[in-house]
Amino acid sequence: MSVRWGVLGAGWLVNQATAAAIHNADGAVLYATAARDIDRARATQPQIAYDSYAAVLDDPHVDAVYICLSNDAHLPWIEASIAAGKHVLCEKPLVLTAEQAERAFALADNAGVHLVEATWSRWHPRMRRIVELATSGALGEISNYLGTFTFDSMTEGNYRLSPDHGGGALYDVGIYPLHALIACLPDVTSFDIMQVDRVMSDHGVDVTTTATLTWGGDSRASIAGSFVMPESQRLTIRGSAGEVTVTDNQAFTTWRAASTLRVGDHVEEFPTVDAYQIMFEEMSALIRGGDGWLLPPQDSIRVAQTVDALRLHSA
Ligand SMILES: NC(=O)c1ccc[n+]([C@@H]2O[C@H](COP(=O)([O-])OP(=O)(O)OC[C@H]3O[C@@H](n4cnc5c(N)ncnc54)[C@H](OP(=O)(O)O)[C@@H]3O)[C@@H](O)[C@H]2O)c1
């Protein structure tokens, strides 16, 4: 039987991509959507629409909840969903601090439900290949990493510019290169921060965060996240035995398009996929007792710890 998903929120991402991803996913149905405006919920074409998020959690037919709300609302709705006995897939950043992440995963463990951060890039076959190359030793000892996710179009009124709603470029886009870094270095338990530069807006959020981290010796990772820099999504990883580079400047958001990866002096090709759909399919399969890959809790906690450290370092 298909997993019946309940969606909290019907904003940009749900309309742009994730409602369709659930509709298209094998083993999943978009059973319920809730939005403050029920017409926006209905527009996602669920079997049932609600005007309250709590109504989704009260609905016994909902197996799993997908939280796609402003970042400050993640933790309370994760906690409420787990208390209602639902599996939870929550948009990135899962929560705002490592302490919150640890608390949320402990709650999920105790309740016997899955809690997963929906950092969709991690499900993309090209990213899975990058991580495989990095962690299998094929690149040798990794010494150098460059990851950027920057763009230059943020509209006034967007929650991303509000400190009260968990806004800021580090939470919004900086965590993509951090997730890839952490996935490629599973044995590194913490990074030393060499430099952090944060440009703050009048609203009180970082519109740019750039940082350099090290994990010993001459190792260096540079990451950038920004709302006010030219569009860039680069990813290069260099090791003692080789280098991989995403060549299309879409390292983290390749969507319904073919993609390529330069590995040393040859290019690997990846067919068109919808990584959001893969994410819903794999989680639905696991919930049904089958096989599927999920982003490990430990990776979400390590990213949250690194975000904490970057925020603290620059405070
Ligand atoms: N994985 C990805 O590719 C990706 C891409 C973009 C965003 N995201 C993540 O997805 C989440 C939503 O992003 P989005 O771009 O869809 O944002 P958005 O269009 O601004 O939607 C935010 C949602 O939050 C809800 N909300 C509740 N209270 C709110 C308040 N006081 N102010 C603003 N919104 C409020 C709204 O729900 P109602 O519908 O009930 O009004 C709205 O639909 C964020 O966590 C973001 O980081 C992920």
From TrEMBL:
GO molecular function, a single term: oxidoreductase activity
Oxidoreductase in keyword set: yes
Residues covered by the Gfo/Idh/MocA-like oxidoreductase N-terminal domain: 3-115
Residue span, GFO/IDH/MocA-like oxidoreductase domain: 128-244
Key word Oxidoreductase present: yes
Alphabetic keyword roster: Oxidoreductase
Gene3D superfamilies: Dihydrodipicolinate Reductase, domain 2, NAD(P)-binding Rossmann-like Domain
Family: Belongs to the Gfo/Idh/MocA family.
Protein name, entry field: Unannotated protein
Biological classification of the source: unclassified sequences, metagenomes, ecological metagenomes
